Amino acid sequence: MSARIDEILAAARRHTDEVIKPEVAAWNTGTAWPRAASDKAAELGLTGLYAPEEWGGQGLPLSEGIRVYEELGKGDGAYAFALSMHNICTFAACGFGTDAFKEAWARDLTSGRKLANFALTEPQSGSDAANMHSRATINTDGTWTISGAKAWVSLAGEADIYFTVVKTSDQPGHKDMAMIAIPADAAGLSFGPRYETPSYSFLPLSEMYLDNVIVSEDNIILPPGKGLQGSLMAIDIARVSIASGCCGLMEAALDTALSYAKNRKMFGGVNLDLDGIQWMLGDVATDLEASRLLYRKAAEALGTPEGPLMAAHAKRFVPDCAVKAANTCTQVLGGMGLLQPYGLDRLSRLAQMLRIVDGTTEISRVVIGRALQKRARDLPDLPVPKGFGEA
Ligand SMILES: Cc1cc2nc3c(=O)[nH]c(=O)nc-3n(C[C@H](O)[C@H](O)[C@H](O)COP(=O)(O)OP(=O)(O)OC[C@H]3O[C@@H](n4cnc5c(N)ncnc54)[C@H](O)[C@@H]3O)c2cc1C
User: What would the mean pLDDT of 170-189 be, rounded to a whole number?
Assistant: First the structure.
């Protein structure tokens, strides 16, 4: 571990304690993204985690920087998620962007003066990402014209630039996909009505419409043919980041339950004296330890051939544990667990949201299942008794 990560984690912890925890209830009474808070996160270096220092970033390896979301997730999982997506876009910009794009945007993104988000999902294609309709076509002067609709765009209308995945031909499949950075003020870009979410209402979410938007070729982050592969790499980082944020959420739920159960008097003692309560919270603590080990191992695997499978294991396992943790901790408080001041209901809703975003639990199972089929092919054949192998 580098010395820098210790400082960054301490800064993230302070940001959670001093900004997110005291303010998140107020954020959720409105619909505005807390830009003043994300500006403070930016001042602490939390918006350029993996970007090289030459572009103003922290230069952290993914395996270290991803731990920041565990700290932020103790405050709020949706806020942590939005900053993680900004950091992934910033990483892509500095790693794959053209020189002209980096000159124009890299320092603004790493410093958090400008925010970025990723637009892959479309109304007809979530899990089935290859069923994409948005199209970019090259013009004779080298610029690109883009038309289509994206769905579930986070930081919609708040981000300054959208890293958008598009098709570039009529060919079915994903071989022609590209990633193009589209500035928020590009002519022809607009947003649909805000989605109404039951929690995390401060995170703007809506559809994004592209009506003959023209951008310079400088804005091609991943050229045709590299778009889906690069997006999947981005999504692997996002999946591990979500698992990291979920660990923070689990710790917040556990601490809330412990803080209450140690004082709630019953049966001549307190709630936490009951074996059944200790076992329930003990299971949450075990799941938290296992989740932490898993996401950190997955973070180390990013960028290696094991990265996608490890990211799928982390995204499959950890958000499920977070849902269970939030619900168990609510149960431990009895009726009080449902009341506002304890915030456990918010954690349940956030954990469920984190099971869906950036690839659902089921899609992680699909990735794991395919890896198992591959592994089976390399194993020796076991004989199947006569009659059992026939259709
Ligand atoms: C809060 C939030 C923020 C988001 N932000 C962004 C963003 O910024 N950018 C962006 O591009 N996207 C974003 N998304 C979209 C998100 O990534 C998708 O919601 C997700 O990929 C699932 O797609 P879907 O909602 O269309 O579900 P669908 O694909 O319609 O899936 C419906 C159900 O079918 C299941 N399913 C699908 N395939 C299989 C299978 N093969 N086997 C078994 N079950 C299957 C799914 O698991 C799910 O339970 C966001 C979503 C949320 C909830």
Answer: 94
